[in-house]
Amino acid sequence: MTALDMRRRLRTVGSGLFFVAMLIVGLLVLLPIIIIVLTAFKPVAEVNAFPPSLLPSDWTLDNFTRIFTELPFARLILNSFVFAGGVTLCALVFDSLAAYVLARIDFKGSRVLLLIIVASLMIPFQATLIPIYQLVADFGWVNTFWGLIIPRAADAFGIFFLRQFFLSLPRDLDNAARIDGASEFRIFRSVVLPNAVPALLTLGIYTFVNNWNDLLWPLVFTTKQEMGTITSGLTLLTGPSGIVPYGVMMAGSLIAVVPLAIMFLFVQRRFIESVASTGLK
Amino acid sequence: MTASDTRPARRYRPPGQLGGRGPIGGQAKRRLTIAGFLLPALAILVLFVFWPMLSALRLSFTDASGFGQEEFIGLDNYVEVFSDPNILRAMGNTVLYTVMFTPLAVILALVLAMALNSPRLPLRGMFRTWLFLPFIVSLAVAAFAWQYLLDPQVGLVNYWLQTFGIRIGNVLQDPVLAMPTVVVVAVWKNFAFYMIVFLAGLQDIPSSLYEAAKMDGAGPWSRFRNITLPLLNNTTGFVLIIATIAALQAFDQIYVMTGGGPYRSTQTVVMQIYQSGFKDLELGFASALSYVLLVATLILSLVQFFFTGRREKDTA
Amino acid sequence: MKKLLAATALLAVAGLGLAACSSSDSGDTAGGPVTLTFWHGYTEADGDVLQGIVDDFNASQSEVTIEPEVKTWAVIDDTLLTALSADEGPDIVAMPAERLPVYASKGAFRDLTDFYASDDSNTAELNPQAVDMETVDGTVYGVPTGFVPLAVYYNKALFAAAGVTEFPTTWDEWVAAAEKLTVDENGDGTPEQYGMVLPDHATVANGVWPSLFYGNGGDIVEDGTTAVIDSPENAETLEYWSDAVATKKISPTGVDGVGADELFSSGKVAMTIGGPWMSSIAAENSIDYGIAAIPAGPAEQAASAIGVSMGITAQAGDAEAAAAETFFSYFFEPEVATAWSLGSGWPPLRTDIPAADVESNPTVAALTEISGTSRALLPGVVNSSDVLTEMDVVTQKALAGDDIASLLKDAQTAIQTTLDDQ
């Protein structure tokens, strides 16, 4: 056996071990999710049964049909899309504009402004919820999509996140464009944004997921059931004394999570592509 | 052509200096441009973030309940924050939580991001989606699954540990183990986002740097220390700050899984803010406590900023 | 970027459209019929019955229209404050009774003293214990929509298997029966089946431990102002039950109220202390169950009550308040009260409804029989949630084996501080 063979073999063994290790980590991470999936297919009586079983003894779709009969499910999903999608689109546009200025243009007060923006992340939302609500009510936006979306149409986290990313893009690019006489908006749009696709996708996913899953916000800003989101709608299934019909709950959240998973699958492919393409610039 | 051909190895130039004042022209136009970029975001932030924060600051000097009448009571709320033993206990719990959560989540995220970035890992795309799943599941649902897993009678975790002769019992009702448990759930729920951020940072590091280091005979640890860490500095600083902020505001999974118990052992500052504001209807007091938290977080973040900033200089 | 902007615009338009079709009616024209929003948390079959009552009321006259909005009790508690802060809340809101005082003390509810005083309010025959829950500092701020004693729900099949034929009537008998019903087949010290489940925190309507304290002549707060938890009676109670759990292993430890309900529904425990909804939960899980009063303690037979109250919020104007009172009077008419009781599974709120009228619902009949033992939980205590947290600390630590005397002493101080604060 030559030394080269040896090294190659070690490499494959190493890769194999690495793969197995990741598989184990992945399974551990996945365990709670497996439970969610299996519970969704269990009949009501079996969820709390003792002794418990991991697999449903009797696979059923009852939990899924109950969701559709007890909740205006289609409407709730639509609302979730409008709310989470609206917030995400607005925030991506507004945050990236502000982050561009904070990262790429030196102006008086920019550091102070950044500090204030970051500091605003440090107050728990429970403290500002009521003042925000009063404002939204003053605008007459309770029970409207405006009330759900506009207060979140720009957010400090997104600005901070994108600013950090924009900082790391090489400056030669925009300086070259600047010397060519390009306007700031043009540099932003044609130089910085195309290179920031991974960051925009990451932030987009983050914002979308957080709003999609947010519970208190839609509960507070909408009092009518037909304006609720899927996440807030599921709370209605909780029984008196706080007993949760877990099977139905899991079924509902499984349906709710599918769009997110598909979105991430799509995005993570784009993510790799875009990162690969930045090598060419 | 690889990235390293066009990019300088060290790209973390301090902001400013080069930007702006170029050939674009007059100050007025420049100001207008800056204002135009900032306006939409700032309008929203001023209305729905800064103004509510100021309102909360004003409320912190009153006995407001949220509706009805309120009276100015000076610093009374702040005095109470620092004299109520339950509040002090909650602060201690929050510190404990942060000390456990932040390093655990950040290190796990970095390690897994490096694994996911390694070309030697087959099926990387699948693993990325897979490991990201906890982040997209809603917490209420995840908390159920965890409670099911941890259940002293029927849970798998107890069952498995028992085969190794370990009995942990009812961890969520154990005054010592409840806190680590809610930390583990939070790490599980949140590491994926930090991991993705690290991944984006890692993918920006040109592989030619590693190849060059390898030629010079640098081992994996030395490559990690001398290339990965310094070049990830911006990313790490960011992740550290957001992880710390998230930890200091721990609420969701505690609310769902332990409600702050047993015996207030998982009662965090934000749990207390919620309790004071929304249960006892003492919004003024809750606001005061929020501002104490804000100042504490700010100080901590500035310290972190200072340290990561210093490291940046050292490694440059 | 262009695509993003276009998509944003499209979404905004879509949002507008959706919003427009859902926010149409809200204006209440002066002089015309009054429309009242009514938040409640009756999400089960009881919700349908309530909706029926509201529909009948709306149809019975043309002055007032009630529009219920169903949420869970937890959601009402989490969102009411915010809604009230901007006058966007409901006109009528129902909530767990122990939550009413804190809202009332902050001025969230209208004073109902005059309503109770008027002859046609139908409130004269209401259970006085239930009205007690609505009173803060001598003023009534609400009306009861539910008042039921905690009761023991037991699994008949397990009772038969263990040969227990009589339901126990005293604490000693209760523990003895529970011991008989506890099964540790493999002898590992952890029973596979427990005789009962005694939750040690966040118990059903927070009432399990108060019930036991009352049973031995103890209490937690007197007159809404004085902490009395540190008493020899309560110390005895805690010692008695922590000993029963620790040495006789009759109950799993560290369980909360929801966990207790779940254990009972899984058939793993023979007895649980619960509310009327246990009937439907047991039925759903095909458990043949019986209902019995909580066995008498050494001093008396008493049970803490689960209460639900509804009140008129301060944001309702005079016209709305008058309209709401019309609805309350309707709600307490004997036939309506009977229908509500039968439909919800809770005993009638009026004391003058003959037992025969509610016989058709066995749960109601059984609960009505024992409703004489019920007592309101912490009536008039504004910061009840803080008091209950302290109580949970005591019971949880006592069952874990901590020193009971010092636990009670600490709780006494903490509760008194809370009461003085309010």
From TrEMBL, chain A:
Keyword Transport on entry: yes
InterPro entries: MetI-like, MetI-like_sf
Highest taxon listed in the record's lineage: Bacteria
Compartments reported by the entry: Cell membrane
Residue spans crossing the bilayer: 12-41, 76-100, 112-133, 145-166, 187-209, 243-267
Broad class of the protein's primary localization: membrane
Keywords: Cell membrane, Membrane, Transmembrane, Transmembrane helix, Transport
Range of residues in the leader sequence: none
Keyword Translocase included in the entry's annotation: no
Classification via PROSITE patterns: ABC_TM1
Gene Ontology cellular-component annotations: plasma membrane
Pfam families the UniProt entry points to: BPD_transp_1
Domain ABC transmembrane type-1 span(s) in chain numbering: 77-267
GO biological process, any: transmembrane transport
Membrane topology category: Multi-pass membrane protein
Family per similarity comment: Belongs to the binding-protein-dependent transport system permease family.
PANTHER family per record: ABC TRANSPORTER PERMEASE PROTEIN MG189-RELATED-RELATED, SN-GLYCEROL-3-PHOSPHATE TRANSPORT SYSTEM PERMEASE PROTEIN UGPE
Record's protein name: Carbohydrate ABC transporter permease
From TrEMBL, chain B:
Organism domain of life: Bacteria
UniProt record, GO biological process: transmembrane transport
Keywords: Cell membrane, Membrane, Transmembrane, Transmembrane helix, Transport
Record-annotated membrane-spanning stretches: 32-54, 95-117, 129-149, 191-210, 231-251, 288-307
Entry membrane topology: Multi-pass membrane protein
Gene3D superfamilies hit by this protein: MetI-like (1.10.3720.10)
GO cellular component: plasma membrane
Residues covered by the ABC transmembrane type-1 domain: 91-304
Family statement drawn from the similarity comment of this UniProt entry: Belongs to the binding-protein-dependent transport system permease family.
Protein name: Sugar ABC transporter permease
UniProt organism field: Herbiconiux oxytropis
Taxonomy of the source species: Bacteria, Bacillati, Actinomycetota, Actinomycetes, Micrococcales
UniProtKB/TrEMBL annotation, chain C:
Protein name per the record: ABC transporter substrate-binding protein
Native source species: Herbiconiux oxytropis
Entry similarity comment: Belongs to the bacterial solute-binding protein 1 family.
UniProt-recorded Gene Ontology molecular function terms: maltose binding
Top-level taxon of the source organism: Bacteria
Endpoints of the signal sequence: 1-19
Chain segments annotated as coiled-coil in the UniProt record: none
Keyword terms of this UniProt record: Signal, Transport
Gene Ontology cellular-component annotations: ATP-binding cassette (ABC) transporter complex, substrate-binding subunit-containing
One Gene Ontology biological process: maltodextrin transmembrane transport
Keyword Transmembrane helix among UniProt keywords: no
